[in-house]
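Researcher: Here's the sequence for the chain we discussed earlier.
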Amino acid sequence: MIVKASAIPGSDSAYSVVADEPDHLRRNLISGFLADCEGNEDLVLAELDRAEAGTPVLGWGDLRVYLDMYPDGRVVIEPTERLLEDDQQDNPPQIVITIAEARKLIFDWIEARDKWYAEREATQSHTSDDPRSISRRC
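Model: Thanks. This is the structure I predict for it:
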């Protein structure tokens, strides 16, 4: 699975994009997982470690998804209640990935995000060296 960083035109913040997942539900839930991890990657990685070490971590979540992490290596991802249709409340859609896959997704996101910000900074530095851009700022 390829994780990329993108941004809304004119925005100075990156967001994650899952580029090559054809299944709509899987793509949306993984995207929600990565969005909820943003800024909390270290906490989610610590909880994955905790689950892998033998302690289930249930109901970890934020705005988009809930995670259940199990010692057998499963990570169950489902949308939060506010994103569910009425007929999905009793049986929400979910996907299952492994702890290893969850870790890789997080590390791929961190790498893509850091690359995006480095490229953006290089572009901004380059244009600030351009005398034309300085005159436009005055």
